[in-house]
Structure formats: C-alpha cells, structure tokens
C-alpha cells in the first residue's frame, strides 16, 4: 500500500521535512506532479539541501526515488540538482524517471515569462510549468521516452519542435528567433539523452512490482491544495492536480492503493505569487511571520505573503484530500505573540459563510482571537506535554476547526525538532 503526503495550503507548508523524517519507514518515495517550480529545503546537521524535482527520500540511503509520469521535467534543472548528491553514478539505482513524464524545453520557459509580462499575470515561477502542461493536454508535448529515443528519432522530433515553435512565433509570444528556440531545445534534449537516459524507465510497472513485493511507498505532493488547477484559487493556481486525487494519475497507482493521507499545514498561512489570500496581513503581524519564519521562496527567492491561519481553507483542503491526519509545521514561529487571530468564517455577499467560495477574492475573514504563549517557547520541543499550555490549546482549537487530528508538530527546521502524537506512522 502507499501513503500520501499533501500540502493543504498554498504550498511551502514544509512537506519536504515531513517526507524526510518519515522516509526511513518507506522503500519508495514518489513525486507525482509539478516540476522544478516546487522547492523543499531540508536541513540535516549543518547541511542545507534545496530539492526541486528529486523526491525528498534521496537523503535516506535505502530509499528508491521516483519522478512519476505526472511530473514535468526541465532536464538541466534536474541534472544540476543531481550534482548535489554526487551526480549520475551515485544515483543510478536510487533514482528513476518515468518514461511518460513530459519535458520542459527552453521555449516553454520563454513563453511562461512572456505571459507573465501581460496584464493578467499569475505570478508564476517562470519555470515553464504551465506551457509544458498546456502542450501535454494539447497532445503535442515531448516525453522522457522521446529523450531516450532522441538519436533514433532525431528528425521527427526536430520536425515536431519546429512545428510547435513556429506556431508560437506566429502568435508573437516569443522574442527569440525560431532557429535559436529550436537549437536550444535540441541541445537540451541532447544533454538529457546523454545524462538522463539511464534513469528513464516505466516507473508505473516499477511501482506495481514494488507493491506486489510488499514494499512501502510514500507519495510526495508538491505545491498545495489551494493551488490545485480545479479546486484552488483559479486562475491563480499552478497547472497540475495538487490534491490527493492527482497522486494516482501522476504515478500509475490506483485509488485503492492509497492507504492514508497526511495533510501538511503551517500554524499560519503564506502564499507566493498573485491571487486571493483572505488572511494576508500587510502589517506588523505579516512582517513578523515573514522574518521569523524565513518566508522566502526556495525556488525564486521571492518574499512570501504572510498572514494568520485560515481554518476554512484548511478544512476545505482536508475534505478534498481526505486527510486522515495532519502535520502542523512551524509552530515555533508563533512564539512570543500575546494573541493569535485565526480565520473561522468569511464575510461574503453580505453574510457570514463557513465554506470556500469559487470567488475567494470576494471573501473577507472573520477572526477568532486565541491567547498566545508570549514569554514561553515551543522552539525545539520534542514532547507534546512540554509545550506551553496555550500552544496546546491553539493546536486543539485548530483540530476542532479543521476536523482532523494533528499527529505531528514541527518546532524548528532541524529533522529532530518534531513532536509525534498518537500513532505517528500514517
Ligand atoms: P507556476 O506553478 O510556476 O505556474 O506558478 C503558478 C502559481 O503557483 C504561482 O502563484 C506560484 O507562485 C505558485 N507556486 C508554484 N510552485 C509553488 C511552490 O512550490 N510553492 C508555492 N507556490 C508555488
């Protein structure tokens, strides 16, 4: 059976740390959607690792790491990331790439940047994610199997590239010349062929075999539920299915293969890019969260927008994902506050509502004020009982509002700074 880890806010909840601490109990760790727009920072001792495409299980020596068919891969970003872990030779047999995963090419990135210059920009990471998924859905994308076959099918692949780039050029979406765009794409495919080919395989069959042998599989979501293409704050979303349902499409496993779902949420909220964020605090509280929580994007370095915990968004996401349990992250960032405002309802079209409307930009938060634990600290605490009384009360209130038990509480960036509650194995 497989377990699933999924972000239930706007991404950057700390999924990487949780996958990293749980990885020892699993044999396979699988990424199933998104691309190098994602970013996990994992701290082990005095070393910091920035992961974008490689699953967080890479830091646990016995884990096999899979980049599933639902992921979009920019070859040079992946190759660069592989170098952190000793490069190709060190990773052979520990990292596998689905032959059905789609490839991000230089013109996808240029198109993403050019679309972002328009008035209705999304605030994307400009990594080419949306344009690559666009080609996938339009059935004109190139996949990892094309990379593996590149020398044999060179002419037909180049003809497909030329056709796609010509269409984009005709719509005046790209500044670079057709020749340049095709040539940079060919170079990208050539280096992908040379370096990545040994890693490209049918990961769906690999996972089915692993499952038949009773291996334990952990599926690792990227981004967060509020950025889901269908259920998030559209159009200010990413271009994949970030919720639990996407894990099957993006890995080849079936819904009945998923045993449990662990939702990851921060003790407050953040978001990067544009789009509705009801609890955003442009004043002192937001600035304090940003500073204490080091809320800057791993991928783009952008300052994250910060604000209080939104219980409605979290409850909505937990229902979408079918969360069995929650890991609450960065509780220590709230240390020192006299009181903490939590959003418990929205004011919407002249009334008070307790659900997430499709036009979230028209909702304003209604807060409940909870006592903080100023003068006490939760930093680095590893046992629930040792937490400040008001921190425990805060956790209990979040559980009540969200309707799911909080099984793990992170009290610092280090692997060891974590509290396990109830039965922690998800
Ligand atoms: P894209 O995924 O680059 O197309 O960006 C679409 C939206 O998703 C933008 O608001 C990004 O800031 C946001 N986004 C994409 N990846 C992440 C992530 O890993 N964490 C948080 N936000 C993300």
Structural topology:
Layout: E1 2-7, H1 15-22, E2 28-31, E3 40-44, E4 47-51, E5 64-67, E6 72-73, H2 75-83, H3 87-91, E7 95-98, E8 102-103, H4 106-116, H5 129-137, H6 144-148, H7 150-170, H8 178-196, E9 200-201, H9 203-212, E10 217-220, H10 246-249, E11 258-266, E12 269-271, H11 284-292, E13 305-307, E14 309-310, H12 311-321, E15 325-329, E16 339-348, E17 351-353, E18 364-371, H13 389-402, E19 405-410, E20 418-420
Parallel strand pairs: 1-10, 1-11, 2-5, 2-10, 5-7, 6-8, 7-9, 11-15, 14-16, 15-19
Antiparallel strand pairs: 3-4, 12-13, 16-17, 16-18, 19-20
Helix pairs in contact: 4-5, 7-8
The structure holds inosinic acid.
How would you characterize this protein structure?
32% of the residues lie in helices and 21% in strands. It has 426 residues and is of the alpha/beta class. The protein is globular. The relative contact order is 0.15. The model has no long low-confidence stretch (mean pLDDT 95). The site of inosinic acid has 20 residues, from α5. Inosinic acid (IMP) is lined by residues 11-12, 37-39, 122-125, 127, 129-130, 222-223, 227, 236, 238-239, 272-273.
What would the keywords be for this entry?
single chain, 20 strands, 21% strand, 10-stranded mixed beta sheet, binds inosinic acid, alpha/beta, 4-stranded mixed beta sheet, 13 helices, 426 residues
């Amino acid at each position: 059976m497989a377990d699933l880890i999924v972000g239930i806010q706007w991404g950057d909840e700390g999924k990487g740390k949780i996958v990293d601490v749980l990885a020892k109990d699993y044999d396979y760790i699988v990424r199933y959607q998104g691309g190098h727009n994602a970013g996990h920072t994992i701290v082990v001792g005095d070393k910091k690792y920035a992961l974008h495409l490689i699953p967080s299980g890479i830091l646990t020596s016995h884990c096999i790491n899979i980049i599933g068919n639902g992921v979009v891969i920019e070859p040079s970003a992946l190759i660069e990331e592989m170098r952190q872990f000793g490069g190709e030779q060190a990773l052979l047999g520990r990292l596998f790439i689905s032959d059905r995963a789609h490839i991000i090419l230089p013109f996808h990135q240029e198109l993403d940047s050019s679309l972002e210059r328009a008035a209705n920009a999304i605030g994307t990471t400009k990594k080419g994610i949306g344009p690559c998924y666009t080609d996938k859905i339009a059935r004109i994308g190139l996949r990892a199997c094309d990379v593996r076959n590149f020398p044999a099918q060179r002419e037909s692949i180049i003809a497909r590239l030329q056709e796609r780039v010509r269409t984009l050029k005709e719509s005046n979406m790209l500044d670079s010349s057709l020749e340049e765009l095709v040539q940079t794409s060919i170079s990208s495919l050539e280096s992908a062929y040379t370096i990545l080919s040994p890693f490209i395989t049918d990961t769906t069959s690999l996972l089915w075999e692993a499952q038949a042998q009773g291996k334990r599989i952990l599926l690792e979501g990227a981004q967060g539920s509020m950025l889901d293409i269908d259920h998030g704050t559209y159009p200010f979303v990413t271009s994949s299915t970030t919720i639990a349902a996407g894990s099957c499409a993006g890995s080849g496993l079936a819904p009945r293969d998923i045993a449990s779902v662990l939702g990851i949420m921060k003790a407050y909220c953040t978001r990067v890019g544009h789009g509705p964020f009801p609890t955003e605090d442009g004043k002192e509280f937001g600035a304090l969260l940003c500073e204490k929580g080091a809320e800057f994007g791993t991928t783009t370095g952008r300052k994250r927008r910060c604000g209080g915990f939104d219980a409605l968004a979290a409850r909505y996401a937990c229902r979408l994902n079918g969360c069995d349990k929650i890991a609450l992250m960065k509780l220590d960032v709230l240390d020192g506050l006299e009181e903490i405002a939590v959003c418990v309802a929205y004011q919407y079209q002249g009334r008070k509502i307790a659900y997430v409307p499709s036009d979230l930009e028209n909702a304003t938060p209604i807060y409940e004020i909870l006592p903080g634990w100023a003068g006490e600290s939760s930093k680095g605490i590893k046992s629930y009982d040792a937490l400040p009384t008001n921190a425990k009360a805060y956790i209990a209130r979040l559980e009540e509002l969200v309707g799911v038990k909080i099984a793990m509480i992170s009290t610092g960036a280090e692997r060891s700074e974590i509290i396990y509650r109830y039965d922690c194995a998800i």
